[in-house]
């Protein structure tokens, strides 16, 4: 564990890695460094030819990665379909994958596939697994996750309004969705969609259900594609779709009616950690570009290298501190999930989701600044990296919503502190009396 694949890992993490994980991290590192990063330009060029078809190079790399045993590494070890890594071990792989934006996809470890696969593995019956999960694991199908709607505040999913009604042996969907993968993507096979099946239920957490919607089902209209900060995000993309009397067989429901929130919770925890670790990988890559620019002999404002200015030396130190401390937070979240389960890890997962995307956007922005004007152009990957960091601040729920939850949970501890401080005060009064001092003043 002396090589570059492990150099960013703290000793407590290294101590927990199994021999299998050590081998896997090394293989992922070699794959990303030798097969993905050098192919970035070719991938871009192929995509220019057909924006909505997965580039042939991606197919080629996926086949090769699968043959090398680098497929589906994310699935936690308690699933029978899992290759056997813990969340902590996989997080180390995810950071390396993050060094190239699309490397995770070559290993079938990309969003929203990872969350969808985990959801299907956890909540589907055997029949459904055969039909929907297996093709995703094999890499022969591709899925989207469709929850968000334009007409409600989707950060509060109890408001999701797309209607789902039982009609004989079918369910019928009516509503409007945005985001999720675009129907323009020729490889998209199905959505996992959240809809409201029981709007009158007094328990607002039991009103919604999750269903599997094949994209070729009649009644789905593709309204438009959405750009993210000017990028079309092809070939996956994001779209607005209208569902008009979309009929699905009743067996497409996941688990049963009213259990969407239970399912959504199971889906989101690990996915958030994966995004965060990949963003840390992106930060490392951006940081390397900033370092290279800092010693570029052609760039000497006022006769000095960019990295010779005290202010830039401090900036570099600050970036290092922010990346390293964020990594500790996410690895701690992954370890907590391994030791105590996803539910117990809720708080540390939220910590990661709040901290990492803003940290990454800040660090990448600083790297763009050090790089000068070209840092904001297609000459570097920095604008795409920044866009990724910026969108993760919103995707899977805005950070404000997570802060609100963390803050509310923290406030529940206030009465305990109040009692504790009362005990301090009682003790102070007692001591003041003993030492004949004036008592009764509260020292908070
Ligand atoms: C690139 C990208 C990819 C996405 N991918 C998907 C996808 O695959 N599937 C999918 O279904 N959706 C996806 N989304 C949508 C995303 O999940 C939603 O945009 C997000 O959940 C917020 O919902 P909203 O847009 O309705 O905003 P709203 O719910 O209206 O929230 C707007 C703002 O209100 C504030 N706010 C909300 N709650 C609180 C709170 N509790 N405290 C304080 N302030 C608060 C925040 O500032 C928040 O950003 C994606 C979005 C982006 C940008």
TrEMBL record:
<dbReference type="Pfam" id="PF02771">
    <property type="entry name" value="Acyl-CoA_dh_N"/>
</dbReference>
<keyword id="KW-0285">Flavoprotein</keyword>
<keyword id="KW-0274">FAD</keyword>
<feature type="domain" description="Acyl-CoA dehydrogenase/oxidase N-terminal">
    <location>
        <begin position="25"/>
        <end position="139"/>
    </location>
</feature>
<dbReference type="InterPro" id="IPR046373">
    <property type="entry name" value="Acyl-CoA_Oxase/DH_mid-dom_sf"/>
</dbReference>
<dbReference type="InterPro" id="IPR009100">
    <property type="entry name" value="AcylCoA_DH/oxidase_NM_dom_sf"/>
</dbReference>
<dbReference type="GO" id="GO:0050660">
    <property type="term" value="F:flavin adenine dinucleotide binding"/>
</dbReference>
<feature type="domain" description="Acyl-CoA oxidase/dehydrogenase middle">
    <location>
        <begin position="145"/>
        <end position="240"/>
    </location>
</feature>
<comment type="similarity">
    <text>Belongs to the acyl-CoA dehydrogenase family.</text>
</comment>
<dbReference type="InterPro" id="IPR013786">
    <property type="entry name" value="AcylCoA_DH/ox_N"/>
</dbReference>
<dbReference type="InterPro" id="IPR036250">
    <property type="entry name" value="AcylCo_DH-like_C"/>
</dbReference>
<dbReference type="InterPro" id="IPR050741">
    <property type="entry name" value="Acyl-CoA_dehydrogenase"/>
</dbReference>
<dbReference type="Pfam" id="PF00441">
    <property type="entry name" value="Acyl-CoA_dh_1"/>
</dbReference>
<dbReference type="InterPro" id="IPR006091">
    <property type="entry name" value="Acyl-CoA_Oxase/DH_mid-dom"/>
</dbReference>
<feature type="domain" description="Acyl-CoA dehydrogenase/oxidase C-terminal">
    <location>
        <begin position="261"/>
        <end position="409"/>
    </location>
</feature>
<dbReference type="InterPro" id="IPR037069">
    <property type="entry name" value="AcylCoA_DH/ox_N_sf"/>
</dbReference>
<keyword id="KW-0560">Oxidoreductase</keyword>
<dbReference type="GO" id="GO:0033539">
    <property type="term" value="P:fatty acid beta-oxidation using acyl-CoA dehydrogenase"/>
</dbReference>
<dbReference type="Pfam" id="PF02770">
    <property type="entry name" value="Acyl-CoA_dh_M"/>
</dbReference>
<dbReference type="InterPro" id="IPR009075">
    <property type="entry name" value="AcylCo_DH/oxidase_C"/>
</dbReference>
<protein>
    <submittedName>
        <fullName>Acyl-CoA dehydrogenase family member 10</fullName>
    </submittedName>
</protein>
<dbReference type="GO" id="GO:0003995">
    <property type="term" value="F:acyl-CoA dehydrogenase activity"/>
</dbReference>
<dbReference type="GO" id="GO:0005737">
    <property type="term" value="C:cytoplasm"/>
</dbReference>
